[in-house]
Write a structure and sequence with these properties.
60% helix, Four Helix Bundle (Hemerythrin (Met), subunit A), transcription regulation, mainly alpha, Arc Repressor Mutant, subunit A, three-stranded antiparallel β-sheet
């Protein structure tokens, strides 16, 4: 079973270096950093190797790792890209389940040893996963991964369901566009195209996309449609978090969103409904390489 993510620890090491204004050539002891961050040597070593690849530190044979340049010359990563320890663990837990590295039933003690996190942090992540409907709590300290998000069939069925009901929501008798909400969606999508695609976290990107589809469905004024879309959005998080590791397809997604908004604003409701169906079907097609890893 995998350990805690090296990228998150690498960020913490950079913060440590900059906060202490360390000069170039400073020795970064593996055991010292392990004690500092209350983890074992293995994740520290992985994080230092990552920083060596990025040119922040240099590795010297039989001597260890040394700072490559003064702390003042190290540019920290954009804050909007940083993930909290809980976010990082949440994504890793999902990824490891998708990869088949975690059994269907797990205990908190197992996961604490595996990821080297305190019970409070782990519990928050597990509760979040349960709230997102891909884990459930068992009696005692046990947890079970729900099968829906590790099934290729279920994932594709979810997208086909969305492609069926979201366009129909736009054709409901009670459908009414809220101009203020529509302009808010337009501003969000334009901000993504203007640069936020590269700076927002995976969670924020997912929420922006989900909000777009939920607001459009909400214009139907049919609570059953909206409840259904919200539930599907919650259970598709796991694979969609992975998909945003590659952000190259997101500009096209935003342009398609803006086109649908243009159609709605000009009263072309039927045309917007058909374009939304094509959009959702296209989203699944673009993610087939991700879905294919599911068992």
């Amino acid at each position: 079973m995998p350990r805690i993510l090296a990228p998150q620890l690498a960020l913490q090491i950079i913060d440590y270096i900059r906060s202490r204004h360390l000069p170039a050539g400073s020795h970064l002891g593996t055991q010292f950093l392990a004690d500092q961050f209350k983890v074992s040597r293995a994740p520290v070593l992985a994080a230092l190797k990552q920083l060596a690849q990025e040119g922040v530190v240099v590795a010297e044979r039989n001597r260890g790792f040394f700072l490559a340049r003064d702390a003042s010359l190290i540019v920290p990563p954009a804050k909007t890209l940083e993930e909290s320890a809980e976010d990082s663990l949440y994504y890793q837990l999902a990824e490891d389940r998708l990869a088949g590295k975690l059994e269907e039933r797990v205990s908190e003690n197992e996961l604490m040893r595996c990821y080297e996190v305190p019970r409070a942090t782990l519990r928050n992540v597990l509760l979040r996963a349960a709230d997102d409907l891909w884990m459930e709590r068992l009696p005692g300290h046990g947890w079970r991964f729900l099968p829906v998000l590790t099934s290729q069939q279920a994932y594709e069925e979810g997208y086909r369901f969305r492609a069926a009901i979201e366009p129909l929501a736009l054709l409901e008798p009670g459908f009414r566009v809220n101009p203020v909400a529509l302009q808010a969606l337009r501003a969000q999508q334009q901000a993504l195209l203007d640069g936020e695609i590269d700076t927002l976290s995976r969670t924020q990107l997912f929420e922006r996309n989900s909000e777009f589809h939920e607001v459009l469905t909400g214009f139907s004024n049919n609570a059953f449609f909206l409840d259904a879309v919200k539930k599907v959005n919650r259970v598709r998080r796991l694979l969609d978090y992975r998909s945003t590791l590659d952000r190259s397809r997101l500009p096209q997604q935003c342009r398609e969103h803006l086109l649908i908004l243009d159609m709605l604003e000009s009263g072309r409701i039927v045309e917007a409904s058909e374009r939304l169906r094509i959009h959702v079907q296209g989203a699944l097609a673009s993610k087939r390489d991700l879905v294919s890893v599911l068992r």
